[in-house]
Design brief:
about 25% strand, about 20% helix, nine-stranded mixed sheet, 19 helices, seven-stranded mixed sheet
Length: about 900
């Protein structure tokens, strides 16, 4: 991503670590206040470490965060960039953004916090050695140590053992680095540069989760990964801080399970769910991974094995003081908060305010990082008990450098508590104070009375654009480049601006911080909220990431210029390397209305020889060069995300022939193959259900089934006979990879007994009806080539798929990205012929990545090589190979 830089206030970043800002909440009202009161009086902290989004033990997170009211967090080493996407075509960094937001949505349900390292998920790998070679051992270890030193957990919970039995190399690495970081975080000689901001920290106990790569006793209850229908390892009940929410288990609960155990199946009557149920709800937020499931009320428990620190037999916090008594001067705080909890009345939460106000100066006087966290929590709890509504509302959600932004901060008192607005301050882009209106500073707000603090601010002309902090600089290898130490670990980018509101509640001074955002009504979906974004005056968007030139002919390149301000005008130019030519040199544009766009066309002529290069589109507006586009990622289950990718594309000059002209594409789980195929000059049509049922398929030279199409579309399976008749009558049908362990999408979500042609058991081959003759596709990760540089061999050198219309040679496999292929066939009818053979280091050769046969007058091809990654990435050899598949007759 383009380096625009990030300008963030130090205090805003610190606040993001110490007290996450209120956002969407899964629980509200009396349940939320009860949770907040209990959490104020609980000082235990748990940090869970694993590798990816969906590796977390959600039942355990919910148990500690919602049941034990502890500070609980999940550190995922990656953002899941290397996985497959079941809801759209986003891959790589864009998929990482989706999975980041899905994790944050999941944490809103299970109550935990979320952290990340700078590591990028580069796809499945078999070894920790490859993982560490790509990530850099010390670099990611430093990130894990940093999070431990910042979060200061009492107990660290590893999701994996750090051994080959974890399977995925990144799983292994998370266990290895977690063990190292447990000791390294307390060593002042390890990463001493961090000690400018934090102190060393020694967690009291290191434990490993049982099941799914974990060691020790198998998890009871539901098995598997804590929320994927499974009670992952957990912990026994703790101190009786909240008997209704975490009641002690039966006396014989621990008798058959060695090591600490958590009763994750216990029911929380305040929330109305067990922690297993919360885990399913939380895990179901991973829409892009297809983990939605039904709640299954009932027993569930999770087990652990202690691998470091003090031993424990029943409770993970055996011997660890999790009360205020652990802090100097804390015993008086505990007594006051105990009283507040005892006297709490759901119908009159304001009655708890006097006790909370009494505790505030005592907490503020304790010089400990945890006390600072609790002080922020206390102010938020006082606001909840007073029924305060506080927001910082921007008039619009987008603002460009040099423009004026109006912000109104509103404080509404919805209780009989004595509340007064002292003042407010905008922080972040600006630092400016404001006064409340209509009430004067110090005047109490009556019931349902509000006060506003208005700001009118000019955005600096050189202000950086707002986008995910980890994408500001281009990634190096498989690690994000983040220069600001205080940003490392944060789940999301701190708000572009925030308002710090100073209040008095029943005479006590408190501070509340709210991000500046835009709240609005969508007529179809109701109230919506978008964060404030600093955007360029215009966005320069190129429609495709790659421009392919299969011969020496010039082609048109269209650039879309979108205005973000009124009366945007300037000049647009294309910058191309030597040997390429763009005509005309520049074009002027003028756009009157924000949100409108103009499409500007240039003609680009390639050189005669094969080469790859880069083209950059630049708009000059008000003497400022703008070389970034704008990309929105919008799905219903998380807030819209905006990126400003660089406005450049890859130019590929490669000699590629293809005889097919009209191609039909059956979209599956989502990919960018149709647009990639259009780069070859093909006429590509997306087939609907109606087309499959009754359309004229014979008009197409070839039909391509998208990735996982048979897994997610019942209509393609229902019309398999028509597709095979198309082949029999002379058509060419290509089927890309399909998984062998996916449920039938037509079955109700959560049911696991669908009539799918694939096996439900991971790794077990099953005969499918994907082709005219049987072949088997397994589940699991065994039958795939994870190393993108793995050498290829040709079992049948004279295969027409290697010879026509392009002669294929080993150089065509250079420059591939992430992997060779996945979910290869492992058994096939003798009438199929193989084309390619490859293998990961130390593994057996696999020939099932591409098999084909003649059927009637046509050709059927199953190909599990990752074309859906290679073609959109502009890999010339992959284009030649796929052109041959389309041209097969």
């Amino acid at each position: 991503m383009r380096n625009f830089g990030v300008r963030l206030l130090l205090g805003a970043v610190l606040l993001a670590w110490l007290a996450p800002l209120p956002a969407q909440r899964s629980f509200s009202g009396a349940a939320e206040i009860e949770q907040s009161l209990q959490k104020l009086n609980e000082l235990g902290t748990v940090l869970h470490i694993a590798a990816h989004p969906d590796d977390e033990r959600t039942a355990v997170l919910a148990y500690f965060a919602r049941g034990r009211h502890m500070r609980t967090a999940y550190l995922s080493l990656t953002r899941g960039e290397g996985g497959q996407n079941l809801i759209g075509s986003e891959q790589g960094a864009q998929l990482g953004i989706i999975r980041t937001q899905e994790l944050l949505a999941a944490r809103q349900i299970d109550g935990a916090e979320q952290f990340f390292t700078r590591a990028i998920d580069f796809g499945f790998t078999r070894t920790a050695e490859e993982t560490l070679q790509k990530w850099g051992h010390d670099r990611i270890l430093s990130d894990v140590v940093w999070v431990i030193r910042r979060y200061r957990p009492d107990v660290i919970l590893l999701g994996f053992s750090g051994t080959p039995r974890d399977g995925h190399g990144q799983h292994q690495t998370s266990g290895m680095l977690g063990k190292e970081a447990f000791a390294a975080a307390s060593d002042p000689n390890m990463f001493p540069e961090q000690l400018k901001y934090v102190q060393v920290w020694q967690a009291k106990r290191l434990v490993q989760a049982a099941g799914f790569g974990g060691g020790g006793a198998a998890g009871g209850g539901r098995g598997g990964r804590g929320g994927r229908g499974g009670a992952a390892p957990g912990v026994p009940p703790g101190p009786p801080a909240a008997p209704p929410a975490a009641a002690p288990p039966p006396a014989d609960f621990f008798e058959t399970l060695p090591g600490p155990v958590a009763d994750t199946g216990s029911f929380n009557p305040i929330l109305g769910y067990s922690y297993e149920e919360l885990a399913v709800l939380s895990r179901s937020m991973h829409h892009s991974q297809g983990t939605g499931a039904m709640r299954r009320p009932g027993a569930g428990r999770s087990t652990f094995m202690v691998t470091g620190g003090a031993p424990a037999t029943k409770d993970l916090f055996d011997g660890i003081d999790t009360t205020w008594n652990r802090l100097p001067g804390g015993s008086a705080v505990k007594a006051i908060l105990d009283e507040a909890i005892r006297n709490y009345e759901p119908a009159h939460p304001e009655k708890a305010i006097p006790a909370l106000v009494k505790a505030r100066p005592l907490i503020a006087a304790i010089a400990d990082p945890l006390a600072k966290v609790k002080l922020s929590e206390l102010d938020e709890t006082i606001a909840q008990c007073a029924g305060l509504f506080v927001e910082a509302q921007a008039r619009q959600f987008e603002v460009a450098p040099g423009a004026t932004l109006n912000i109104t901060t509103t404080v509404l008192n919805r209780s009989t508590a004595k509340v007064a607005v002292v003042g407010a301050r905008v922080e972040g882009i600006w630092n400016q104070d404001g006064q409340a209106k209509p009430a004067a500073p110090g005047d109490n707000l009556g019931y349902n009375q509000s006060a506003d603090v208005a700001f009118s601010l000019v955005v600096p002309a050189n202000q950086a654009y707002t986008q995910p902090y980890w994408l500001v600089k281009p990634a190096t290898a498989d690690v994000y480049q983040v220069d600001d130490q205080l940003l490392i670990g944060l789940p999301d980018t701190p708000a572009a601006a925030q308002v710090r509101v100073r209040l008095t509640v029943e005479g006590a001074a408190i501070e509340l911080v709210r991000p500046v955002q835009h709240r609005y009504a969508d007529r179809a979906r109701g109230e919506r909220v978008r964060p404030l974004m600093v955007v360029p005056a215009v966005a320069v968007n190129l429609p495709e990431p790659v421009a392919l030139f299969p011969d020496t002919a010039a082609r048109q390149v269209q650039v879309s210029v979108r205005a973000n301000v009124a009366n945007a005008q300037g000049d647009l130019r294309l910058e191309v390397p030597a040997g390429w030519n763009a005509s005309p040199p520049s074009r002027s544009f003028q756009i009157a209305v924000p949100g409108e766009q103009r499409v500007v066309t240039f003609e680009v002529t390639p050189p005669a020889g094969e080469t790859t290069a880069s083209l950059r589109a630049v708009a000059k507006v008000n003497q400022r060069d703008i070389a970034s586009g704008i990309q929105a990622i919008a799905y219903p289950h998380f807030p819209p995300q905006t990126l400003f990718p660089p406005s450049d594309i890859k130019l590929v000059r490669a000699n590629i022939k293809v005889t097919a002209k009209k191609v039909a594409y059956i979209m599956g789980a989502g990919d960018e193959m149709p647009d990639a195929l259009r780069q070859l000059g093909l006429d590509v049509t997306l087939l609907s259900q109606s087309d499959l049922e009754q359309g004229d398929l014979s008009r197409f030279d070839a039909i391509v089934a998208g990735v996982r199409a048979y897994n997610v579309r019942a209509d393609i399976r229902a019309n398999q006979p028509r597709l095979l008749d198309y082949v029999k009558n002379g058509g060419t049908y290509l089927v890309q990879y399909q998984t062998g362990d996916s449920p039938d999408p037509t079955a109700p979500r959560g049911q696991q007994q669908p009539p799918n042609p694939f096996n439900q058991q991971q790794g077990t081959p099953v005969t499918t009806n994907l082709g005219p003759y049987p072949f088997a596709v397994p589940g699991g990760n065994r039958y795939r080539i994870t190393v993108e540089e793995a050498p290829l061999k040709f079992p049948h050198q004279d295969s027409p798929l290697l010879q026509f219309p392009n002669h294929i040679n080993p150089k065509d496999f250079d420059g591939w990205v992430q992997e060779r292929g996945l979910y290869f066939a492992v058994q096939w009818d003798a009438r199929y012929q193989t084309v390619l053979s490859s293998q990961d280091p130390g593994e057996q050769p696999l020939e099932g990545g591409e098999i084909w046969t003649r059927y009637g007058k046509g050709v059927y091809i199953f190909t599990a090589y990752s074309w859906f990654r290679q073609l959109p990435a502009g890999v010339p050899g992959a284009y030649r190979l796929f052109a041959n598949l389309l041209s097969a007759k």
